[in-house]
Every structure is written in structure tokens, then in C-alpha cells.
Amino acid sequence: MTQATTATGRPRGGPSGPSPTPRGTRRRSLAVEFYRSAVGKKWVMAVTGVLLMGFVLAHLIGNLKLYLSREEMNLYGEALRDLGGHLVPRTTLLWALRIGLIAAFALHVHSAYALTLVNRRARPEPYRSRRDYVAASFASRTMRWTGVIVALYLLFHLADLTWGSANPDFVRGDPYNNLVHSLQRPVVAALYVAANAALGVHLWHGAWSLFQSLGINNPRYNALRARFAQAFTAVVVLGNLSFPVLVQLDVVEPACPGADPVAECDEESGVAVGRPSGGAR
Predict the structure, then answer these.
(1) What is the DSSP string of 59-86?
(2) Which of 245, 253, 244, 252 is nearest to 183 (CA)?
(3) What is the pTM of this model?
(4) CA–CA gap between residue 55 and residue 274 (Å, rounded)
(5) DSSP character for 125?
(6) Best CA proximity match to 262, nearest among 273, 270, 252, 251
(7) Which of 38, 80, 142, 175 is the most buried (most CB within 10 A)?
(8) What is the pLDDT along the chain (281 residues), one digit of tens a residue?
């Protein structure tokens, strides 16, 4: 029996090879196809989480220069703007890092939201048992809300200490005094404490679960994972909380306000005594 063919000689409706891609459609890249899967979203959320955790730790280490001197803190800010030296225009690498962090933050939020929708579709509300809700930790149940709190505070933090629109005493190039003046306001200090409490809850669960998202989930490592999450969270949160506490206690005070941002400050007189080489340009 002869199989019917089309005018071009191809079998009509036969079990031939893969059907051709319809005209007007594009084949998605492997990266997009990977991200569309639940496993891909988990990996993206975990990897971007590691990048954001690295930024949080680096940000804390930089801010600890507050305890050295105004000069050291402000020179650190200048060093960030001068990344790359004379090889690239000033602030180019800093903006590249900022754009990378924004992209990582956006992917982290989107992957988390998408996974939440996937989980909801897989287990509709009527089928969720009270036992599952009780078994979930407080940190895991509140990841959405702690993430929202941190994101909202981040916007205020930028307006306060980067753009200066939320800080009446803001002086560009003087991060030491900008931070001290900001945290001298009790409301801002309270917001800083609340935001870091939310960050701590988010970090603790994130640092614990990222290994599971990457497929590293073995009972032999679970105790180590827990200690890592606890230690990392404690370092970041306690370090950040020290700033508003010590500023409110007047242990850290403004230094040489209005002077050249990178000038050396005489702590006793509060007067700038000179400007080191390699200062702001």
C-alpha cells in the first residue's frame, strides 16, 4: 500500500522526523529554556543570592572604616569611584558593579516570585495542611515580607546616603559625616535597626537554603550549613547594628563638617589640618 504524499513529495501525516518550526517563531536560547524550568529558577535565585550576600559583607567591611577616621572612610569612598585608576574613566567600574548588582537583585526577586507561583499551583490552598504550615520555619514563611522590607529600605538608603535627597546634611564626597548625621536622627536609626532585623531573618534562611537550591543537600553537611548561616547572619547584622547604636550613644560623632572630605581632621579641635595626596578630583 502506497503512502499518500503531498505535492512536494513529502509523506502526508506520516510519522516522519520532527515537525518544522513554524514561521515567525524563534527558538529560545538554552539560558532562557533553563531559566523557564523550576530547577533553573532555583539556581538563579541561589547564585544571585550568593552575589548579594557578597555585596552585603563587602558593604559592611567598607562601613567599618567609620571607626578608623573620617579620612579613612572618605578615602575609601574615593577609591570606589577611582576603581580602574587611569585605565578607564572615573566611576565607570563602579557603575558597572552597580548595574550588575541591580541585575542580580532583579533576577533574585523575579525567580523568587516565579517559584512562589509554581509552588502555589502545585499545591492549591485547600490541599495545604496545617502541619506543613507549622513545620515551616518563621524565616521561610516570612521571606517575601522581609525581602519587601529590605527592598523598600534600600530605596530610602540610596536617597539618604547616595543621592542625598533624604538627608538635609548631605555633602557629596563625605560619606563619614553623611552617615553620622543620618543616624543621629532617632527615626532613621530605628528604621536602620528594623531593616537589619528583616535582613537578618532573610539572610539566615537564604544562607541555609541556597545549598539545597544548588543540589548540595546531604545530612552530613546540614549542621555545617546551619552554622554557616548563623555565623554569616550574626556578623552582618551585629556589624550593621553597631553603627546606629554607637552614633546614638555619641561614641561616633561628626568630624570637621564642611571641610574638604578627604582632609585629615584634628579630633580635638575638629578642624581640618591638611589634605593628603591622592584625594578627590
Answers:
(1) HHHHHGGGGT-HHHHHHHHHHHHTTTTT
(2) 244
(3) 0.79
(4) 33
(5) G
(6) 273
(7) 175
(8) 555 555 555 555 555 555 555 555 566 788 888 888 888 888 999 999 999 999 999 999 999 999 999 999 999 999 999 998 889 999 999 999 999 999 999 999 999 888 888 877 776 655 554 544 443 577 677 888 888 999 999 999 999 999 999 999 999 999 999 999 999 999 999 999 999 999 999 999 888 888 888 877 778 888 888 899 999 999 999 999 999 999 999 999 998 877 777 777 766 656 666 654 444 43
How far is the C-alpha of 254 from the C-alpha of 22, rounded, in Å? 67
SS3 label, residue 265: strand
Q: Which candidate, 57, 41, 42, places its Cα nearest to that of 228?
A: 57
Task: List the domain boundaries for the chain.
Answer: 35-254
Terminus-to-terminus CA distance in the chain, angstroms? 87
CA dihedral 202, 205, 206, 210 (to 10 degrees): -170
Show the cell assigned to 109. Answer: 526577586
Going by C-alpha positions, the residue among 81, 239, 240, 243 that lies closest to residue 178 is 243
Cell of 173: 564626597
CATH number of 35-254: 1.20.1300.10
Q: Give 28's DSSP letter.
A: P
DSSP track, 176-218: HHHHHHHHTSHHHHHHHHHHHHHHHHHHHHHHHHHHHHTT---
Kindly tell me the sign of the dihedral angle through the C-alpha atoms of 133, 137, 138, 143. negative
What distance in Å separates the CA atoms of residue 74 and residue 173, rounded to the nearest whole number? Answer: 7
What element of type H or E holds 273? strand 271-274
CA atoms in the 13 A half-sphere facing the CB of 173: 12
Residue closest to 274 by CA, chosen among 261, 258, 263? 263
Show the cell assigned to 5.
Answer: 504524499
